Amino acid sequence: MDPSRLPPGQYLVKNFPVLHLGPVPPFDPGTWDLRVEGEVGNPLRLSRAELLALPRVARKSDFHCVTGWTRLDNAWEGVFFRTVADLARPRPGASSVTIEAEAGYLTSLPLEDLLREDVLLAYRLDGKDLAPEHGWPLRLVVPHKYSYKAAKWVRLIRFTQEQEPGYWEQRGYSSSADPWKEERYA
Questions:
Q1: Contact (CB, 8 A) for 141 and 161
Q2: pLDDT value, residue 183
Q3: 3-state class (DSSP) for residue 176
Q4: How confident is the model at residue 17 (pLDDT cuts 50, 70, 90)?
Q5: Which of 26-30, 59-63, 152-156, 179-183 has the lowest mean pLDDT?
Q6: Quick one: which of 4, 6, 34 has its CA closest to 135?
Q7: Spatial contact of 39 and 90, defined as CB atoms under 8 Å apart
Q8: Taking a C-beta distance cutoff of 8 angstroms, is the pair 182, 7 a contact?
Q9: Beta strands in the chain, from DSSP E residues, in sequence order
Q10: How many domains are there within the chain?
Q11: Which CATH number covers residue 98?
């Protein structure tokens, strides 16, 4: 392994540890949807079938947990975040995005972070559908941030004018969450 791929304070793992709040939520393909709202010209409500009909992309990226572990070369498949953003047409004042997951979990990021080439709304990992404990049916993947920004079980994308504090930010974690700068805490 090239040591330059490991951010400061991180150690390498081969497995994929499972960390999340609360129980794994149930999934009903007949009622599940992804909503996109807020500062957009075209609010969306995508069914699972409509989401899967969007152009599928595959990207390999590393995954950095704020607790200190890193897993390299994760093979994600899904939809570019920017594809969904393009469909929703963010208004000029939209500079941030809040992601809401099952059970009210929130995270938020500047819009420019989410429009990068490696940011996905993923539904597959390493050639298989995501396991429920890893975010099935939809997970945000933001490789250049600590993984608490990579919400599992995504249900709502809300474009905003200002960045809103997410679950972990409300508890003292960094809003910028850059693993290369060890931005773990505010």
A1: no
A2: 96
A3: coil
A4: confident
A5: 26-30
A6: 34
A7: yes
A8: yes
A9: 11-12, 33-38, 44-47, 57-64, 69-80, 96-101, 106-110, 120-125, 128-129, 139-141, 154-160
A10: 1
A11: 3.90.420.10
